[in-house]
Amino acid sequence: MMTVRDRLLTSTALRVLKLPIQRSLRRVGYELAPINVGHSELVLGLLARHAIDLLVDVGANQGQFAQEFRAHGFTGSMCSYEPMEAAFALLNRAASSDPRWTVTRTALGDKAGEAQMDLAANSVSSSLLAITAAHIEADSASRTMGHEIVRVTTLDSQLRDVKGDALWLKLDVQGYEHRVLLGATETLGRTEVVQCEISFRELYAGQTHYLDLLGFLDAAGFLPVSVVPGLAHPVTGEAMQCDLLYVRSDARNRGKP
Fold it and tell me: What is the average pLDDT across 218-244?
């Protein structure tokens, strides 16, 4: 039976009340939309059903993602990796009061060595690959402002002695995802959830095509379960980048979604 509150929330009157607010927001470039709790619920469900005990945060920047994980109630161990000096200093500070959060200043790839990182004006778009004109057109703050030589290693070498039976692997490495995965074959064997940024346009020169990246994760035994919107073209609105969440496909045979 519907309550008075239910009737009000679904009534024409409420829609009429929203109209002036919607018009005002649209004048300044915003849109009124319902609160999306779906993604948070999905994350909580995946954490519980897959018994995640280790977050591997590749491309941690200042630690934003790991802090969100803690906000979701995750109490397990976290390993964050960030190569840039300035971002790592902030990451290290964020993790200093969390005894179960370790941070390492390094980039990840398919082999060990050193590489030049292009530093973007907005920090989060920095990459080991050169940024393309298409990316700068979509987001001028992604333009390169400098360079830094960084250490590169593989995820397998970093995690070989780290305890964890059910990993959530998050990759935010600006076009370098395939290289990281090539250096993580052992790690993928104990990974339950992969959260990977993919690009529908070439935003970084030489990055792996998104269909090839999808094929790699499919061959590794993972199925996509959710899309998290990312960069869109400011004029056309076309999607240029997003995060995809994958779960181990044989999890379905273990009673997991």
Answer: 92
How far apart, in whole angstroms, are the C-alpha atoms of residue 226 and residue 214?
Answer: 13
Is residue 21's pLDDT more than 80?
no
Closest CA to 54 of 175, 151, 192, 155: 192
CB atoms within 10 A of CB 245: 21
Note the pLDDT tens digit of each residue in 94-129: 999 999 999 999 999 999 999 999 999 999 999 999
pLDDT, one tens digit per residue, over 129-138 is: 999 999 999 9
- The residue that leads in pLDDT, 32 or 109, is 109
What is the DSSP-derived secondary structure letter of residue 71? H
Among the listed residues 178, 174, 57, 191, the one whose alpha carbon sits nearest the alpha carbon of residue 124: 174
Integer angstrom CA distances of residue 42 from 45, 66, 139, 249: 5, 17, 29, 17
Quote the crossing angle between the two packed helices 85-95 and 64-71, to the nearest 10°.
Answer: 20
Q: Which residue has the tokens 């057109």?
A: 137
Give residue limits of the domains in the chain: 1-33, 38-254
Find out if CATH 3.40.50.150 is the number for domain 38-254: yes
Joined tokens for residue 256: 């997991």
Q: Which two tokens stand for residue 245?
A: 């969440």
Sign of CA dihedral 95, 84, 245, 140: positive
Residues facing 172 on adjacent strands: none
Rg of the chain in Å (alpha carbons): 20
DSSP symbols for 156-180: HHHHTTS--SSEEEEE--TT-HHHH
